[in-house]
């Protein structure tokens, strides 16, 4: 599955242990002190952009969670919602 330009990833930056909300394909992201703040930021930005996939990585860098967030009237909504 190809990622869309609106898909986002939340990860922990190794250099300073800050959490980053970054649009896939972007050079930079939004930096937060907590994972929760980064997740809330990513969710909000995805919903405002019309939907996409949010990938959350844990402290170890491995994918912890993936969620597809919709932003409209999708006739075939995803069945893989975790939250």
Oligomer: single chain
> Which overall shape is indicated by the principal axes computed on the Cα atoms?
globular
Number of alpha- plus pi-helical segments: 1
User: Using DSSP, what is the number of strands?
Assistant: 5
Low-confidence stretches: none
Which descriptors would you attach to this protein?
83 residues, alpha+beta, five-stranded mixed sheet
Summarize this entry quickly.
It contains one helix and five strands; from the N terminus they run E-E-E-H-E-E. It has one helix at 35-48; strands at 8-12, 19-23, 30-32, 51-57, 63-70.
Structural commentary:
The chain is α+β, with helices and mostly antiparallel strands and 83 residues long. Helix content is 17%, strand content 34%. It is built from one helix and five strands; from the N terminus they run E-E-E-H-E-E. Strands 3-2-1-4-5 form a five-stranded mixed sheet, covered by helices on one side. Strand 4 and strand 5 form a beta hairpin. The model has no long low-confidence stretch (mean pLDDT 88).
SSE blueprint and pairings:
Layout: E1 8-12, E2 19-23, E3 30-32, H1 35-48, E4 51-57, E5 63-70
Parallel strand pairs: 1-4
Antiparallel strand pairs: 1-2, 2-3, 4-5
């Amino acid at each position: 599955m190809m990622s869309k330009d609106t898909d986002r990833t939340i990860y922990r930056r190794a250099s300073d242990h800050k959490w980053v909300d970054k649009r896939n394909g972007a050079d930079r992201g939004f930096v937060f002190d907590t994972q929760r703040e980064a997740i809330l930021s990513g969710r909000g930005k995805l919903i405002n952009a019309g939907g996409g996939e949010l990938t959350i990585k844990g402290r170890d860098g491995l994918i912890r969670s993936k969620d597809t967030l919709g932003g409209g009237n999708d006739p075939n909504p995803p069945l893989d919602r975790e939250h």
